[in-house]
Amino acid sequence: ANYGPNPICKGCLSCSKDNGCIRCQHKLFFFLRREGMRQYGECLHSCPAGYYGLRTPDMNRCSRCRIENCDSCFSRDFCTKCKTGFYSHRGRCFRACPAGFAALEELMECVEGCEVGQWSEWGTCSRNNKTCGFKWGLETRTRQIVKKPAKDTIPCPTIAESRRCKMAMRHCPGGKRPAKTKDKKKKKKNLMERAQKQHSIFLATDKTSQ
């Protein structure tokens, strides 16, 4: 090779003083490095980050990964390692895993998550296992786990939830009225009797004054 003693020509079959390697030895990859306005060829055993090795009959080359946020790739369209902060999933890089997949933090990969079915209808409004006798109660709905996650450490979404509801029948048919209702009725009766008594006293006093 020309300019053999020059470090820039290491591994070259042919080399230019200004442009570096032009052709590489059979097992090496040709990489065109750019530094500002200048570019020169290098012959490498493996391609740098962001590139993958493309073997051809003519000459092996380092080709750039075309996948966004990819640090190293197996081919143009398949990433093997994403940049820091991104999760790898089916050859692509994601800031957050797609729906139905969970993040495996130790490997920064997306794996199959816990799959759940559709919510059921809301259940009957009840309280203390009764559907009457109270003004407010709780109603519940559930959903089933359709597919368990790939890792036991990956949690499943909630499969049951409840909410406050107003009961259709506040008083149970044929049942006794709550004690609170009796107290209100008794209090009202006492107030009426007290008012009638005060009215009688007022009338008696008014007659005496005449």
From TrEMBL:
<feature type="domain" description="R-spondin Fu-CRD">
    <location>
        <begin position="9"/>
        <end position="110"/>
    </location>
</feature>
<keyword id="KW-0358">Heparin-binding</keyword>
<keyword id="KW-0964">Secreted</keyword>
<dbReference type="Pfam" id="PF19028">
    <property type="entry name" value="TSP1_spondin"/>
</dbReference>
<keyword id="KW-0732">Signal</keyword>
<feature type="region of interest" description="Disordered">
    <location>
        <begin position="172"/>
        <end position="210"/>
    </location>
</feature>
<keyword id="KW-0879">Wnt signaling pathway</keyword>
<protein>
    <recommendedName>
        <fullName>R-spondin-2</fullName>
    </recommendedName>
</protein>
<dbReference type="Pfam" id="PF15913">
    <property type="entry name" value="Furin-like_2"/>
</dbReference>
<dbReference type="GO" id="GO:0016055">
    <property type="term" value="P:Wnt signaling pathway"/>
</dbReference>
<keyword id="KW-0217">Developmental protein</keyword>
<dbReference type="InterPro" id="IPR043601">
    <property type="entry name" value="Rspo_Fu-CRD_dom"/>
</dbReference>
<keyword id="KW-0716">Sensory transduction</keyword>
<dbReference type="InterPro" id="IPR051514">
    <property type="entry name" value="R-spondin"/>
</dbReference>
<feature type="domain" description="Spondin-like TSP1">
    <location>
        <begin position="114"/>
        <end position="167"/>
    </location>
</feature>
<dbReference type="GO" id="GO:0005576">
    <property type="term" value="C:extracellular region"/>
</dbReference>
<comment type="similarity">
    <text>Belongs to the R-spondin family.</text>
</comment>
<dbReference type="GO" id="GO:0008201">
    <property type="term" value="F:heparin binding"/>
</dbReference>
<feature type="compositionally biased region" description="Basic residues">
    <location>
        <begin position="172"/>
        <end position="189"/>
    </location>
</feature>
<dbReference type="InterPro" id="IPR044004">
    <property type="entry name" value="TSP1_spondin_dom"/>
</dbReference>
<keyword id="KW-0325">Glycoprotein</keyword>
<dbReference type="InterPro" id="IPR000884">
    <property type="entry name" value="TSP1_rpt"/>
</dbReference>
<dbReference type="InterPro" id="IPR009030">
    <property type="entry name" value="Growth_fac_rcpt_cys_sf"/>
</dbReference>
<dbReference type="InterPro" id="IPR006212">
    <property type="entry name" value="Furin_repeat"/>
</dbReference>
<keyword id="KW-1015">Disulfide bond</keyword>
<dbReference type="InterPro" id="IPR036383">
    <property type="entry name" value="TSP1_rpt_sf"/>
</dbReference>
